[in-house]
Amino acid sequence: MNPEKTVRKISSHWYVWLFPVFAVLISAWLLVQYLTGLGPKIEISFDDGSRIEAEKTRLSYRGVEIGSVTDVKLSEDQKKVIVHARLKKDAKKFAEEGAKYWIVTPKVSIQGITGLETLIEGPYIAAQPGDGGEKTEFQGKQESETDDPLEDTVAYRLETANAESINPGDNVSFRGMNVGTVTKVTLSKTAQTLHVQINLQSKYARLVRTNTQFWRKVGVQAKLGLFKSELKINSLETLLHGGIEMFTPDPAGEIAKYNHKFPLHSSAPKDWQKWNPSLEK
User: Fold this and answer.
1) Where in the cell is it found (predicted)?
2) Of 209, 203, 210, 233, nearest in space to 221 by CA
């Protein structure tokens, strides 16, 4: 065998080795990117872990994914379900003292239906950020709400001369969808008017503009005329509890600030069904 021919053959195919080298380098780079983008690991214990799945169930805050479940197992005494999760790098506040976690599932009550999105995607774990020292183990809740039902909401004040049919717990709706709740009804200092506090979920705060109109929902609406009469019966919830409807005329004003005060009207504004403003952030 001619040695020069062998050397020439090997050297003429040296570039073949570049492909696996490049593959290794790219894989290493992707691995570094992945690892540097990871946030802290946490453990959340629940009384029940039905439909919580590893690599599928997400952790969410205000509709934004902040992490995902990596493993689900029973505690050593078999009394708890331990959920292991990995947070995203920018979600470190959720691995601090005071952070809260709870499971969101569909919930039907006389006040409405919540968590409908979980019928398709499955349940998810909602969260509230902490504000203390570093912490990685948490006790979660089964209810789709925090200890304080007013957390993650924005409060506004409505003023009316008569709060007939308006009570704490009544729904505040937009286009027929429940977006908040009446939380308090009090007399003004002069006792000349009533103040109605409403709390809207933070994700719906953009719907409340400085010119938004609020009015009482009526269970039965009747328009009687000589040649034409109309009778409209609203939902069972409205018949039993009443509530408040809100909508914004064209053009929409600025997004209202926390605790902004609005008048509460006794009936819907004229031609409000024709309003259709854009309410983007």
Assistant:
1) Cell inner membrane
2) 233
